[in-house]
Amino acid sequence: MTAPSAPETAATADARDELTDGYHLVVDALKLNDIDTIYGVVGIPITDLARLAQARGIRYIGFRHESNAGHAAAAAGYLTKKPGVALTVSAPGFLNGLVALANATTNCFPMVQISGSSERHLVDLKQGDYEEMDQLAAAQPFVKAAYRVSRVEDIGRGIARALRTAISGRPGGVYLDIPAAVLGSIMDKETGDKTLSRLVDPAPRQLPAPEAVDRAIELLAGAQRPLILLGKGAAYAQADDQVRDFVESTGIPYVPMSMAKGLLPDNHVQSAATARSLALKKADVVVLVGARLNWLLNHGEAPSWNPDAKFIQIDIEAKELDSNQPIAAPLVGDIGSVLEAIAERTKPGQIAAPAAWREELAARSATNVAKMAERLKADPSPMQFMGALKAVRDVLHANPEAYLVNEGANALDIARNVIDMHVPRHRLDSGTWGVMGIGMGYAIAAAVESGKPVIAVEGDSAFGFSGMELETICRYNLPVITVIMNNGGVYRGDDVNPLETDPSPTTLMLAARHDKMIEAFGGKGYRATTPAEVTAALNEALASGGPALIDCEIDPSAGTESGHIAHLNPKGITVGNITPAKK
Ligand code: ADP
């Protein structure tokens, strides 16, 4: 909105009160549906939309890159069970945001990306408009649904449709295209207000059929080595009491996927996280609770899994079933309702995990925990991942309200094993794609949505994808402490280019001082070379409550190529044996 060219008179003010426009209708529709925060990057044609949202009491968090704003919206959706909203400009801004929207869809997080777009008649005839692109078509393959609003009177409907689609059934990413001309269209306010609606029961419960529940109970009742696998769908469902009751009343050991850590505290007596390989290899009946049998679970295949294992899958999305292994007892519904139905229909004592199985897993856990304790005791110099991460673990134990964001290769794999969680939905990580770049976006959303401190454990390479958002963190004075595992490289920092011309493909600057970056924006920077220094810096930063960054100097030879997933690299004849070209 440009500044009025002439002083406002009573007559023009009255006229304005009787009219509305696309901008106002978008903001009013979002507010009507309890959207209280928007994450975005402004520019043509959505700058005034952000201004107006802010003026009307919606919190607007402005980022430096749309991917990071999108990742923040996705994390907000996961944490709050309400669609996170990202706002982007046309074409390039939209495309930047689309990465996050696709990632949200892959992770089953509810998110809506609202993007301005250029003049439809120019775009459709490819006349070469400013930031010309058919954004609706571009978004389609990557999202749960994509919609366009072509008339100002459809804005309310478009927003309602986008929000419900994102949140209901399996949550996911929705794209909503609003051309500039629609935002700028004016209509009578009274008529416009009538076009808006508030969603009734946006994510209805989905109850399983009784016979499906009985089938699953019978299968579990006959199991010798039952196992529960908790995934991030279970964390998202916010059915924490039902999950705990199911686990504890049946006595079945459970393994949490990384973002389900903390749903029950990691030191729970039934946790088989520290006997994971044995649990998967031997379980005869497995209950998947909001977890998919995808690559993260080796597709349910031997030798990682017992080839005779039978699966019970609790999922809100029927088409997920049988995607990798036959599902002997499908339970389609929302996790809270399904677990309640199981509890209601199970006869007393009907399901009980045999003691021998529990003891076998407990014994393996004890051995593995002792081995890990030995490794954690070592405090070599230069500092290794384990030493730095143990320091983070201990500070988190003392501050369980703090959120943990985690990405990287080794920084992710080792932190997942070393840092246990005690509170539901307090760990946000690279997720289903194993993506890099979510770090600062997720951290900002966790701080904004919860008001609690956030510790973002980042590989130095992973941090680079969203590092400029340090400025955003400082601008909003958020309690985000970024802890960088700086070993000077992608995977590790000691690789060499045999031709000695340029740095090797995996080399980053070993001497990089990320702590200086945050100081440029007024945050507090620390450099840590020992675990004791990491502890001291973290405690000081938490006590200050402001933005901080701890650059941990890690041994450049620490870390393995691709972390725990090196087997996914294709094996040509040259891998591990690359020789320089002959002169
Ligand atoms: P993880 O990576 O932790 O194993 P996934 O993202 O693979 O978890 O799986 C999450 C699953 O949870 C998805 O298949 C999704 O459809 C399902 N899901 C999400 N929300 C719910 C819910 N409220 N009730 C039931 N299933 C859900």
UniProtKB/TrEMBL annotation:
Cofactor(s), names only, from the UniProt record: thiamine diphosphate
Thiamine pyrophosphate enzyme central domain sequence ranges: 213-342
InterPro entries in the record: DHS-like_NAD/FAD-binding_dom (IPR029035), HACL1-like (IPR045025), Oxalyl-CoA_decarboxylase (IPR017660), THDP-binding (IPR029061), Thiamin_PyroP_enz_cen_dom (IPR012000), Thiamin_PyroP_enz_TPP-bd_dom (IPR012001), TPP_enzyme_TPP-bd (IPR011766)
Pfam families registered for this protein in UniProt: TPP_enzyme_C, TPP_enzyme_M, TPP_enzyme_N
GO biological process: fatty acid alpha-oxidation; oxalate catabolic process
Record keyword Cell membrane present: no
A GO MF term: thiamine pyrophosphate binding
Residue ranges constituting the Thiamine pyrophosphate enzyme N-terminal TPP-binding domain according to the UniProt record: 22-137
Domain of life: Bacteria
CDD domains linked to this entry: TPP_BZL_OCoD_HPCL (cd02004), TPP_PYR_POX_like (cd07035)
Family: Belongs to the TPP enzyme family.
Name of the protein described by the UniProt record: Oxalyl-CoA decarboxylase
Organism for this UniProt entry: Streptomyces liangshanensis
